[in-house]
């Protein structure tokens, strides 16, 4: 199975309009995990807000492609640092149901970790999660994230305050646990020239 992370915007231009319908579907499927009561509810405004967000995330928004098929998305945001030195950020990701439980989340997680700690040389990567998100908590722990605590009532979802769990991995944890997960160094160099795409991986599937 070949897993690639592709950027879909470049220099403020949409270069992959074909994947927009998939992205809107994935966001809709997992709206309850990713958004709150303060995100637009009108479908048109909602889609517009997502597309604007993607442009703001450039160049740290990728579509996950599995054997050439759009399978999910992953992005980094909430940067801490300045224009010259970045210290930390958050990750977010969604896989289409069809592509879950096949080891793809693990492979993508390793690519992101390698990009964050080896290319960007950040100190910390974190995820703020719904405490019921068993899959992501399990996957995060497998990748070396630690549960650091709970932000009580941090979000409003469907009129109710909802806790958020903070998972984080710091640089020493990463280098203790992982070696570079990159498969093809040549390909990685080629891709980082045009966009900071964190390369690709092959799994045994
Ligand atoms: C979280 C998510 C990315 C995991 O991706 P995935 O490709 O299904 O994960 P993997 O197949 O690599 O499995 C990783 C581990 O999690 C476990 N896992 C997967 N789904 C699980 C579930 N629903 N409940 C408990 N554990 C689960 C797997 O068994 C595996 O554990 P193991 O390696 O110890 O056997 C995917 O489920 C998803 O997109 N969920 C919806 C969106 C979401 O929650 N995003 C995260 C918020 S930012």
Note down, in words, how this protein is organized:
- By secondary structure, the protein is of the alpha+beta class.
- The chain has a single domain (2-202), classed as Gcn5-related N-acetyltransferase (GNAT) (Aminopeptidase, 3-Layer(aba) Sandwich), CATH 3.40.630.
- The chain is built from seven helices and ten strands.
- It has helices at residues 20-29, 31-34, 43-57, 104-119, 134-143, 171-177, 185-194, and strands at residues 2-7, 9-10, 13-14, 61-66, 69-81, 86-95, 124-129, 146-157, 160-170, 200-202.
- The strands form two sheets. Strands 8-9-7-6-5-4-1-10 form an eight-stranded mixed sheet, sandwiched between helices. A two-stranded antiparallel ribbon has the order 2-3.
- A hairpin with a 2-residue loop joins strand 2 (9-10) and strand 3 (13-14).
- Helix 4 packs across helix 5.
- The radius of gyration is 17 Å and the shape is globular.
- The model is unreliable at 183-195 (pLDDT under 50).
- Coenzyme A binds next to strand 6, helix 4, strand 7 and helix 5.
CATH homologous superfamily grouping? Gcn5-related N-acetyltransferase (GNAT)
The third-level CATH topology is Aminopeptidase
Query: Structural class given helices, strands, pairing?
Result: alpha+beta
Poorly predicted spans:
183-195
Helical fraction equals 25-40%
Query: What's the mean pLDDT score?
Result: 90
**End-to-end CA span:** 5 Å
CATH class descriptor name: Alpha Beta
């Amino acid at each position: 199975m070949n897993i690639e992370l592709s950027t879909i915007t470049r220099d403020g231009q949409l270069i992959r309009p074909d994947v927009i319908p998939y992205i809107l579907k994935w966001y809709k499927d997992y709206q309850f995990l990713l958004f709150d009561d303060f995100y637009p509810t009108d479908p048109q405004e909602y889609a517009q807000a997502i597309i604007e967000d993607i442009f703001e995330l450039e160049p740290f928004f990728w579509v996950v492609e599995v054997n050439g098929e759009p399978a999910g998305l992953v992005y980094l945001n909430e940067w801490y640092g300045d224009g010259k030195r970045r210290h930390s950020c958050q990750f977010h990701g969604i896989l289409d149901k069809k592509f879950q439980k096949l080891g793809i989340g693990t492979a993508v997680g390793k690519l992101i970790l390698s990009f964050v700690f080896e290319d960007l040389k950040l100190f910390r990567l974190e995820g703020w999660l719904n405490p019921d998100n068993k899959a992501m908590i399990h996957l995060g722990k497998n990748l070396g994230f630690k549960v650091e605590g709970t932000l009580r009532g941090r979000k409003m979802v469907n009129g109710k305050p909802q806790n958020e769990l903070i998972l984080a991995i710091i640089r020493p944890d990463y280098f203790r646990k992982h070696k570079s997960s990159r498969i093809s160094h040549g390909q990685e160099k080629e891709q980082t020239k045009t966009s900071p795409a964190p390369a690709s991986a092959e799994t045994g599937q």
